[in-house]
Design a protein that fits this description.
By secondary structure, the protein is α/β, with parallel strands linked by helices. The protein has 18 helices and seven strands. A seven-stranded mixed beta sheet has the order 3-2-1-4-6-5-7, with helices on both faces. The longest helix has 56 residues.
Length: 548
C-alpha cells in the first residue's frame, strides 16, 4: 500500500482513486467473490446430492412396488380394502372410531362454504363424527355468515360446532389448541384437519383412518394436494410445478425411508394420543404444523404419506398473497431449526440416522441452503463475476451442469408444464431474494420472524364442496381473468424486484460491451426481464395497488 501511495503521490486525483480501487479490488473484492464461488459450489453440491438421493429412492420405490404388486396381488389388496370398508359400514358403532374434523379459518369469506360443505359430506357414521369450525374472523359480517352456514348444516342433522374466540392469541395453533379442549373433542380418537379452501372427497376418512388403526405407532396420515385453479395464471402453474415435486418426491421419500416428513398443516389425520404426547399445538413459530411434526417424531411416532389420496384446494393466485405465504414458509422452518436443534440433538428416542436426516437433509439443505444458494449464486455472484471481467474462476459445473440436473429433477413431476421451464427457473431466482431474506430473519429471529399474514384465496373454482365440472373449470378462469385485467398504471409496483432487474440489466449490458466471452449476458438479460415482469405485477391475477 505504501508503494501505491508513493507512486500516486504526483498523479491526479482520478488516477489516485483508480489506483486505490485496483488495490482494494485485488486484495479484497476478488478474493471475496472467489470465496463466494467456492461456498456456492459446496452448497450446490449439497443440494445436488440431496436431489439425486431422493430421485434414486423414488425410482427404487417405483420398481419395488411393480415387483411386489403383480395384478393378482393388486386384486387381493383391493378385495381386502373393500372388505375392510364393508366391515366399517356394517358395524358403524362397533368399528368406526370417533373422529373430530377441525376447520380453522380467518375472514375466509370466499371459501368458507367449500370446506364446511365437503366436511359435512364425509362418508362416516354421523354419531361418530364431529365437525368443528374454528372461526377467528375479526369481521362481524363474515362471522355471521360462517355461523349461519354451520347452523344450516346442523339443521340437516350434522354434528357441527361453531367456535369463535374473542382474541387471536396463537393464531391457527391457538385456535386448534382451544378446540381440542372442548368437552366433545376429548372423546375423539382421531383429528382430521382441513384449511378453509380444502375440499376432501367423501371417502377421505375411509381411506386414511384404517392406516392409523392398522399400526398403533403411526401418528399422522398425510394426503397430497390437488389444485383446482392450477390453470388460472402462470403463477399458479409455477406453484403447481414446485408443489408437485414436494409431494411426489420429498414427502414420499420422508415417509418411506424415515417415517418422517413435514406435516402440511391440512389434509391430514392425526392420532389424538400422538398429538397430546408431542405437547399439542404451540405457536413458537409461524410453522406450527412442522413444529408439531418434529416434536412427534422426537417422541418416536411415525408418519405415513398417502400419495394416492388427493384433496382439492386452491393456490394463491395473486403475487402479494404468494409472497406473504413464501415468507412464512421460508422464515418459519429456519426459525424452527434455531429453536428445535437442541431438542433434536438431545433426543434419545431417535436414531442418529434420523437425526442426520432431520438436521441436515430436512432443515439445512431444503429449508436454508436451497434458498441461499439460489439467490447468492444466480443473483449476486454471477453478476459480480461479470463485473470483474474474468478475474474470478467460475467452474462450469457450478454454473451449468449441476443446476441443469437439479432443475430437470424438479420439473419431472409436472410434464404438462415443461414448456414453462425457463420462466419457472427465472421466477424461482427472483423469489429466492424473498426466501433468503425470510430464512435469515428466521435464523436470527429478527423483527418479522413471527409475522403471520393469512393467504388470501379468491374461491372462484369451488362449487359447494363438490368437484368442479369441466364446463365450470373452462369458463371461470377466462371470465375471472377478464374481470381482473387492469391497466398498467393501476398495478402494484414491487420495488425490490425493480431494483433487482435494474442491477441485472446493467450487468448484462456491461458484459455485452466489455466482455461477453462466456455469454453470461444472455442469462442476465433473461433474468432481468423476469424481474421486471414480476416488479410491474404481470405475474398472477391482477389486483389494484393498495391505497397508501
Amino acid at each position: 500500500m505504501r508503494s501505491i501511495a508513493a507512486a500516486s503521490a504526483g498523479l491526479p486525483a482520478t488516477s489516485t482513486m483508480r489506483a486505490a480501487w485496483q488495490a482494494v479490488r485485488w486484495s479484497v473484492v476478488v478474493p471475496t467473490v472467489q470465496l463466494a464461488v467456492y461456498v456456492c459450489a459446496a452448497m450446490s453440491l449439497m443440494l445436488f446430492l440431496e436431489r439425486l438421493y431422493m430421485a434414486a429412492v423414488v425410482a427404487g420405490l417405483w420398481l419395488l412396488r411393480r415387483r411386489k404388486r403383480p395384478r393378482t396381488h393388486r386384486d387381493g389388496a383391493a378385495a381386502a380394502d373393500q372388505q375392510q370398508q364393508d366391515d366399517l359400514e356394517a358395524g358403524a358403532d362397533q368399528c368406526c372410531p370417533m373422529v373430530l374434523v377441525q376447520i380453522p379459518m380467518f375472514n375466509e369469506k370466499q371459501v368458507y362454504r367449500l370446506s364446511i360443505g365437503a366436511a359435512c359430506g364425509l362418508s362416516w357414521p354421523s354419531d361418530r363424527l364431529v365437525i368443528q369450525v374454528l372461526d377467528d374472523s375479526t369481521d362481524p359480517a363474515i362471522r355471521e355468515l360462517v355461523e349461519v352456514e354451520c347452523a344450516r348444516w346442523a339443521g340437516k342433522g350434522v354434528r357441527i360446532r361453531y367456535e369463535n374466540r374473542s382474541n387471536r392469541h396463537g393464531y391457527k395453533a391457538g385456535a386448534m389448541r382451544e378446540g381440542l379442549k372442548k368437552h366433545y373433542a376429548k372423546d375423539c380418537e382421531f383429528v382430521a384437519i382441513f384449511d378453509a379452501d380444502f375440499q376432501p372427497d367423501a371417502d377421505f376418512l375411509r381411506r386414511t383412518v384404517p392406516l392409523l388403526r392398522r399400526d398403533p405407532a403411526v401418528a399422522l396420515v398425510q394426503a397430497r394436494w390437488r389444485f383446482v385453479n392450477a390453470d388460472e395464471c402462470i403463477l399458479t402453474r409455477i406453484q403447481e410445478m414446485s408443489l408437485n415435486y414436494h409431494f411426489a418426491v420429498e414427502q414420499e421419500v420422508g415417509s418411506a425411508c424415515h417415517g418422517f416428513f413435514g406435516f402440511n398443516g391440512t389434509a391430514g389425520v392425526w392420532r389424538a394420543a400422538a398429538l397430546a404426547d408431542a405437547g399439542g399445538w404451540k405457536e413458537r413459530t409461524t410453522v406450527e404444523d412442522m413444529d408439531l411434526a418434529v416434536r412427534a417424531c422426537l417422541r418416536g411416532w411415525r408418519f405415513v404419506y398417502a400419495g394416492d389420496l388427493a384433496v382439492r384446494n386452491e393456490l394463491p393466485s395473486t403475487f402479494r398473497a404468494y409472497r406473504y405465504q413464501q415468507h412464512r414458509w421460508s422464515c418459519g422452518p429456519a426459525n424452527l431449526l434455531r429453536k428445535a436443534l437442541p431438542e433434536i440433538l438431545r433426543s434419545e428416542r431417535v436414531s442418529p440416522w434420523k437425526k442426520l436426516h432431520l438436521v441436515y437433509g430436512f432443515f439445512v439443505v431444503r429449508k436454508v441452503v436451497a434458498h441461499l444458494v439460489t439467490f447468492v449464486f444466480y443473483c449476486v455472484v454471477i453478476p459480480a463475476c461479470v463485473l470483474l471481467q474474468g478475474e474470478v474462476r467460475l467452474p462450469k459445473y457450478v454454473a451449468m451442469y449441476v443446476p441443469a440436473v437439479i432443475t430437470l429433477l424438479n420439473a419431472a413431476c409436472t410434464p404438462r408444464s415443461w414448456h414453462l421451464l425457463i420462466f419457472w427457473i427465472l421466477f424461482e431466482n427472483v423469489m429466492s431474494m424473498h426466501r433468503s431474506k425470510a430464512a435469515i430473519i428466521g435464523l436470527l429471529e429478527a423483527s418479522r420472524a413471527n409475522e403471520w399474514v393469512v393467504t388470501d384465496k379468491l374461491g372462484a373454482h369451488g362449487h359447494g364442496g363438490a368437484a368442479p365440472t369441466k364446463k365450470l373449470m373452462a369458463k371461470k378462469p377466462a371470465a375471472a381473468a377478464r374481470k381482473r385485467r387492469l391497466p398498467w398504471c393501476s398495478r402494484e409496483v414491487h420495488v425490490l424486484e425493480l431494483l433487482m432487474g435494474a442491477c441485472l440489466l446493467y450487468c448484462a449490458v456491461y458484459d455485452m460491451i466489455f466482455f461477453g466471452r462466456d455469454h453470461f449476458y444472455v442469462y442476465l438479460l433473461l433474468q432481468s426481464a423476469a424481474a421486471f415482469i414480476v416488479a410491474f405485477g404481470y405475474v398472477g391475477a391482477s389486483v389494484p395497488a393498495p391505497a397508501s
